[in-house]
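Input for the complex:
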Amino acid sequence: MPSPEAALFQFLSGMGMPAYASTSVPDDATLPYLTYDLSVGGWDAGEVNVPVRIWDRTTSEAKMNAAVRVVGSRIPIGGVTVPCDGGMLWVKRGSPWAQAMADGSDSTVLSRYINVDVEYLVID
Amino acid sequence: MKFTTVAADAFSKIQLNAGIILTEFDPTDPPETDSEITEMRSKIFAATSGGAQFTVSPEFVDFGDDIDNIPANTKELKKLQSVTATMSGTAKTVDTDVAKRLMAAADVGANGLITPRADLRESDFSDLWWVGDYSDVNSGSGAGFIAIKLLNALSTGGFSLKPNDKSKGDFSFEFTGHYSLDDMTVLPYLVYIVEGELPDTTLSALTIGSLTLTPTFSSSVTSYTATTTNDSDSITATATDSTDATVVIKNGTTTVTSGTAATWSAGKNTVTITVTNEGETKTYTVEVTKGTGN
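Predicted:
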């Protein structure tokens, strides 16, 4: 079984594009990709917010919305449980679900900010 | 020893999410296919908010409570007289059928008219189910669930509509399960707790010609070794779930059909047997060493 952190990475890597922890995006990463801010909880910590951002070099809002729908299909209403070492992660939709954003430094890059909540149902 | 701890398998025994209220459900054959899930959705009583509350209140009689020198709550003298089982919550959707049930005794007529009735009829009582996600395996085939059946349910909470400004209206409900004179030993509720099970990805049998596998084959053991002096041996792998599981055998990178021969190279040959069932996989490996013989 992967560690909780690795299980989250593997889960987010199944969204149709590479996933990177926001602290470890390679310099040569090519768009589109998603980044996420890793927050780790525990059995008694309840939900923790793990913001996910989708990035793509496009001017198509429809393309970005489609990418959000892919993430939504992987995290349906009620969430999804992901097995990991010591238990499982309960990955749920946060609120608001997705917000359109832009990269202030590059007008050809669009972004979506997605609120993902994760409950670490993990026994240490 | 610190007594602030939880069982190691606690995560696998959690009820998740608000669940749904259904007019029909078969816990012995829960929906798995898309068509079965669509069929189940058509049986949802109403969309709810805040989940449902299921409560069973027992009513006991203490036959010793008025007898001198017998203390109250003596177990041999305590009898269960009846239980009151209720399911309550707030519905966010309504149609004529839902309103009819909420009104307990009513008939649906033309043009959306629902006429309340002064008398109760047999048809006003019907079963309701609450079904919710359960355990660490809670989606797909074999998903765990908790199901509660409220027998002969009748709306006892009245018909209530609370419209909300700039928000959805609330239809509060409370249903009570009922005994039947047909068999008064049947209590008005049932509870099912079914743990989820991952699809079976094990092999029930694995043979490579007449070679001896080390260790002896067992479904739960995935790594083996064998030695041979033959140029080839027939590989047969049988999935435990022979109906839904698929088995792919490879000798190195060469695919081998089960029941046919694999050709060995001198030295080590790695045979992998991958069993796939509804997205779950398990891989067995056998390292076959071909010697030159005497």
